[in-house]
Amino acid sequence: MNIGILTIGDELTSGRIRDLNSPLIIREAARMGWVVSSILSVGDEISAIQRAINYFPDHCRATIVTGGLGATSDDMTTEAMARTWGRQLIRNEQVLSVLRDHVSARGFRWTEKHARQAQFPEGAEPIPNPVGSAWGFSLTHRDCLFIVLPGVPEEAAVMITDQVLPRLHRIDPSPNNVILSRTFKCFGISENEIEEKIRALIPHDEMTRIGFYPLFPEVHLVLTIRNANQKQANANLRNFETAITDVLQPHLFGRDHETLEGVVGNMLRQKRLGLAVAESCTGGLITDRLTDVAGSSEYLERGVVSYSNASKISLLKVPRHILVDHGAVSESAARYMAEGIRTASGVQLGLSTTGIAGPAGAVPGKPVGTVYIALAHPGGTVCQHFVFPRDRRKVKVAATHTALMMLREYLNTSPPGIGNP
Amino acid sequence: MNIGILTIGDELTSGRIRDLNSPLIIREAARMGWVVSSILSVGDEISAIQRAINYFPDHCRATIVTGGLGATSDDMTTEAMARTWGRQLIRNEQVLSVLRDHVSARGFRWTEKHARQAQFPEGAEPIPNPVGSAWGFSLTHRDCLFIVLPGVPEEAAVMITDQVLPRLHRIDPSPNNVILSRTFKCFGISENEIEEKIRALIPHDEMTRIGFYPLFPEVHLVLTIRNANQKQANANLRNFETAITDVLQPHLFGRDHETLEGVVGNMLRQKRLGLAVAESCTGGLITDRLTDVAGSSEYLERGVVSYSNASKISLLKVPRHILVDHGAVSESAARYMAEGIRTASGVQLGLSTTGIAGPAGAVPGKPVGTVYIALAHPGGTVCQHFVFPRDRRKVKVAATHTALMMLREYLNTSPPGIGNP
């Protein structure tokens, strides 16, 4: 079943307030196997609302409308619906009496404005609001069930769970599809390359959908499987997952809510290895990312942001002649930095970056985006050279991700370590 | 002029990703005095896109479309528009050659998929993308100017400023109104408090609008002034700005595109002062922020992320008994850290943070979110204690902002310094 969402209010189209109702409706619909196909927001203007409600019946079996049910003059959802579809506004005496009690219980004075809230379009079924004063209502037009709710998120949330979902169930009682979804997070590979690699693995049918989402510097691949049979859906997902994991190595680092820093952190913890980081061009972003993970103090011993040559010499024991002869941005400097932080900290792994984040600083042979990344480990030191032709922030982000991927690669292949002090 | 927004992508209708493009378009349109009348989101489905694009021409003079311009099979915005309006897809050779260069510069392999991105509906004008590979295009249908952009926020943002606004200007030069807009960026004060403070200063007329945008951890106040008379508009803005600046001190740190790290960096450069940073709970985020500013190596000498006690002792000379008696999260530790990094680096200013980012680590009297921030300067050391009752990432972000604000406050009041080695 296709569902539409219509949110009404100047505060939404002017960007003053973020819509909190749509995400909730989307989540609940997905749980049930329904698809939200359109989300439309319009301001508090009667012609805009009239145009908007006519958008949905062609392609949606149900439409959830929020907003514009209050007692003030800018609330005109009810009137717009009645006018658009030539229905009279009819006062509901039962609702009126509940509203009177509600207003007096709160110590407010009853006015004719409040009485407006007891009016509904002909044929509508009022829906109680257990939190606030504005009742909702439901109304079927051209085979589309419209369910209209107040915009206040605390009120809408309760009504979505208690009133909307049961009504949707009544018109689609057995959404006989299980929906499973899995996100695959990759780095260092483009959308195109991913698609080429997995093309042969994914059946081109209605039940399987894939989507690509570039979230710099990562690319996410989302696989969605629908099936009437739970067991079959699970088996399909497992099969695709195995196949995808295989072809996307070594770029695939995580699934669903996993992060690269979380994955690397878990490996460090499991292998009982300690890490120290010496950053130049990444400016602290590597340790910032690592310390976003709760419990990272178990494996992150220290970080150093050696922005000046003096700090590279005093904190990391990089020989002055290396900086003079090869430059601070060089393979030798990166190696000395990684080894220096490893030695100073006494842990097993030292990770370093040095590069030119730009926009200034390029020299012949070393354009903006040049980065050397080194990892000193118990068996030696590896160093790689990259050029990220990006702006300053993106050079930092790409270099940070690359450094963490190098660390992950090492942890994937290294033998189990020994206890970290 | 009425403007429509259409965002395309399963990631939006499935709720996986928050739409960052619409808020930007809304804000820029408001600055110019244009009204966003409808915002519609649909998934990556050709019939949904076809239905959606036909929604706008009746009531919008222009429609900004984002998403579905990539090279993968789920990107079908261009095809949907061509099909809906019976226009042929025509390959643009110039764009094709730019795409080839772009792909090879990034070291990716050219495929036929990439060539799809050089196809545009008949009559469309391609719009360059200075950040990514997907070009946009503009196309007029039934008197509505459609401007189609990639969905990636970093790409869309640049194109909105550089390409969309000038095109909208051409169709609505709004000759009768000068529109001036100023963003005031505040930290450490709520929207409500800002509103109370400025309420008396802002005239309640049609020509002056204010909007509040909480962007954690900052709150932005946007003032928009319309006036038929340029001189009058400028004078009004100047008056409001003076009044607002006065009442919002000390929370107001910047305007328009200024950032806190940029403001602090400028002050350090002007005063010729050097800075070194010792971070515990902020984990490198302070130096990450500082080094986002080009040229920050002029004043940032080094940073240390002293996550372990051993690193606090060896790198910052924090006495062991302080860590044992007072704990690593204490005023004494913060003061020693700031003084230690100042001494070790030889620069004038040492900034430090130590705290409990959580979720674990709370002790009696020191709940999660407890943070001590110290600044060691030529005249002594100041230390402040805070509790940020937030999740781990937000504790780090709030502590970083607070530390930079403390530094700004010091630089605002300190005498001019002397040259930094």
Report a brief summary of the structure.
Chain A is built from 15 helices and 17 strands. Chain A is an alpha/beta fold. In chain A, α2 (21-32) packs parallel to α7, α3 (46-53) packs across α4 and α10 (260-271) runs parallel beside α15.
Give the topology, please.
2 copies of one chain form a homodimer.
Chain A: E1 2-8, H1 10-13, H2 21-32, E2 35-42, H3 46-53, E3 62-66, H4 77-84, E4 89-91, H5 93-105, H6 112-116, E5 119-121, E6 125-127, E7 136-141, E8 144-149, H7 153-171, E9 178-187, H8 191-198, E10 208-215, E11 218-227, H9 230-248, E12 252-255, H10 260-271, E13 275-279, H11 285-290, E14 300-305, H12 309-316, H13 320-325, H14 331-345, E15 349-355, E16 370-377, E17 380-387, H15 392-413
Parallel strand pairs in A: 1-2, 1-3, 3-8, 13-14, 13-15
Antiparallel strand pairs in A: 4-5, 6-7, 7-8, 9-11, 9-12, 10-11, 15-16, 16-17
Tell me the major beta sheet of chain A.
Answer: 6 strands, mixed
As for the CATH topology of the largest domain in chain A, it is Molybdenum Cofactor Biosythetic Enzyme, Chain A
According to CATH, the homologous superfamily of the largest domain in chain A is MoaB/Mog-like domain
The count of strands of chain A amounts to 17
Q: What is the total number of structural domains of chain A?
A: 3
In what order do the strands lie side by side in the largest sheet of chain A? 2-1-3-8-7-6
Secondary-structure-derived class of chain A: alpha/beta
> What is the distance, rounded to the nearest whole angstrom, between the alpha carbons of the first and last residues of chain A?
58 Å
Cα Rg of chain A? 30 Å
Please give the most extensive interface between any two protein chains, plus how many residues each contributes.
A-B, 84 and 89 residues
